[in-house]
Design brief:
With 81 residues, the protein is mainly beta. It contains one helix and six strands. The protein has one domain (5-74). Strands 1-6-2-3-4-5 form a six-stranded antiparallel sheet.
């Protein structure tokens, strides 16, 4: 598996990466995430504002939430590679 990198070095171009974040209960999580930038999203249409900016993950098949990850790695770098 690739080394985790500081979240400040993660791409903000809409690509999906694996992020690591800690929830309100102090539990560490690993999720596939995408950084959403309102200016980039506006190009696709719709009403986007600064509250939409940030790292978003699916917590189940119907629910997304914004998280504050502390590190990341590229999506394809899993343990079997």
């Amino acid at each position: 598996m690739a080394e985790r990198k500081p979240i400040s070095t993660a791409p903000h171009d809409g690509s999906k990466v694996t992020v690591y974040w800690t929830d309100a209960d102090g539990v560490d999580n690993e999720s596939l995430a995408q950084y959403r930038d309102p200016k980039r999203l506006a190009g696709a249409g719709g009403a986007w504002d600064d509250s939409d900016a940030g790292w978003w993950v699916f917590v189940d098949s119907h629910t997304q939430r914004r998280v504050e990850p502390h590190s990341w790695r590229p999506q394809g770098d899993d343990e079997d590679a």
